[in-house]
Amino acid sequence: MRSTQDWQRADAAHFLHPFTDFQSLARKGSRVITRADNIYLTDSDGNRILDAMSGLWCVNVGYGQQALVDAATQQMQQLPFYNAFFQTATPPAIELAELLAEVTPPQFQHVFFSGSGSEGNDTVVRMVRRYWDILGQPQRSVIISRTNAYHGSTMAGASLGGMSGMHAQGGLPIPGIEHIEQPYWWKHGRPQGLSREAFGLQAARWLEERILAIGPEKVAAFIGEPVQGAGGVIIPPSTYWPEVQRICDAYGILLVSDEVICGFGRTGHWFGCETLGSQPDLMTFAKGVTSGYVPLGGVMVGNRVAKVLIEQGGEFEHGYTYSGHPVACAVALANIRLIQRLGLVEHVRDDVGPYLAEQYRGLMDHPLVGDAETCGLMGALLLVRNKATGDAFPEAVSIGMVCRGHCFANGLIMRAVGDRMIIAPPLVITRAQIDEMMALIRRCLDLTLADAQRSGWLS
Ligand code: PXG
To answer: What pLDDT score does 404 carry?
Structure first.
């Protein structure tokens, strides 16, 4: 086995990491993860780390599930690859399409496969525009999204996303994408003195205002994550999505739910739209469909769109080499069946989800925690400088990064998004493991508080 230093040297010399300042990482050296089991990672120095982020929001069934390994092995032996172009198909892709129709909401009977969530959202852009073309309304091409959304890193995915840093590089967004403000109560509702519920309605009506400003006859679709993930686990008020649904219906606009993070049990239902209350026309998925064991993504196509594409559309000129990859589909089948066999959706909804919510409410007594929220097994802590006023730390302090540093050093993977510390642990997590995770979170918050006191950052 190579030493950590040796790995880091080779990594810095050749490997350009995603979303990374290459030079500063090369100076610092990567953390090299070598194995994992259940919810624990091991790094190249032999440290054990509790992975409260499920890899990158994807390892829903946890690490080391033999059923997924066996499915991949058997499929690779039998048929490692065949494509789905030119009027062919493979059994795993057909069976996965059938099973997805079963576990998704009833309006979904069809799927288009991709290799990732980004590609799934590229498919969404082409598909919704194609839908309106076929219906003789090509001018309906604008897609409305939200600031701070994350929909991937391809040209269309990053354009749909609402990350200003991404738009600043590479000539984005592409034409015909507009953004409204996100439903973040702490930032936009609380300063106005609005209740969460009242703010949810206001935030949804920003959509209506934008539709009217653009002209409803030009708007093709609205896309959103049920809970914004990469943006910092922004959980919208319960009034938000039903009102968004009403508005989309009123103007005949397609509703797209990006379920890349929220899908496959994360929120306590199979899909986030079921928890948050919408009935989308299209759903993007990836990550949890295979629990990240192999790459796979796609778009669930609701009956409204499928009927038009199938009956009136002729050839849809779009597809990927790996659309319906047999090994990825075989792993997805094993993964979904395992979620069903272990009852993981119910486990989140009835047991560990409510338990995590209770633990998070308990964290509200910590001097640094201004807000603590969960939805299923997604959680966010907002770190504030002054609990009474809710004042934020100055940006230069990077309080989230300070806290994340303590997490790294104490065997816990918890992400920082600005001042929000976020988690999304594997769905197999037990109550005892949540207790272990909470003890680590408390320790890291205490260490962060000590830093803040020592450095005079508190007001
Ligand atoms: N939609 C959503 C909602 C996502 O979270 C994608 C699309 C794109 O999926 P692919 O498979 O193309 O990566 C994602 C991906 C983060 C982080 O920092 C989140 C994602 C990816 C990378 C980093 O939280 N989500």
So the answer is: 98
Closest ligand 1 atom, CA of 116?
Answer: 11
| Mutation pick for ligand 1 pocket among 56, 256, 282 (CB with most ligand atoms within 8 Å) | 56
User: Do the beta carbons of residue 310 and residue 39 sit within 8 Å?
Assistant: no
Share of the chain above pLDDT 90, in %: 99
Tally of CB atoms within 10 A around 396: 6
User: Which residues have a Cβ under 8 Å from the Cβ of 120 and sit 6 or more positions away?
Assistant: 114, 152, 260, 284, 285, 286, 297, 298, 299
**Mean pLDDT of the region 361-387:** 97
Model confidence, pTM: 0.98
Give CA 339 to chain center in angstroms. Answer: 18
Q: Tell me the β-bridge partners of 420.
A: 382, 417
User: Best of 114, 223, 287 to mutate for ligand 1, by most ligand atoms within 8 A of CB?
Assistant: 287
d(CA 143, ligand 1 centre) in Å: 19
Predicted pLDDT at 298: 98
Instruction: Starting at the earlier edge strand, list the strands of the sheet with 282-285.
Output: 108-114, 297-302, 282-285, 254-258, 219-224, 142-146, 177-180
Q: How confident is the model at residue 303 (pLDDT cuts 50, 70, 90)?
A: very high
Q: Determine whether the shortest distance from the Cβ of 286 to ligand 1 is under 6 A.
A: yes
| Domains delineated in the chain | 31-64+343-455 (3.90.1150.10), 67-342 (3.40.640.10)
Q: What pLDDT does residue 201 have?
A: 98
Phi, psi of 275 (to 5 degrees): -75, -40
Query: Does 297 sit in the ligand 1 pocket, CB within 6 Å?
Result: yes
> Is the CB of residue 17 less than 8 Å from the CB of residue 25?
yes
Instruction: List the residue whose alpha carbon is closest to atom 6 of ligand 1.
Output: 152
Mean pLDDT, the chain, rounded, equals 98
- Coil, strand, or helix at residue 459? coil
How far does residue 453's CA lie from ligand 1's centre (Å)?
35
Residue 415 to residue 147: CA distance in whole angstroms: 20
Pairing of strands 378-383, 369-375: antiparallel
**Amino acid, res. 248:** C
> How remote is the CA of residue 175 from the centroid of ligand 1, in Å?
22
Q: What is the distance in A from the centroid of ligand 1 to the CA of 149?
A: 10
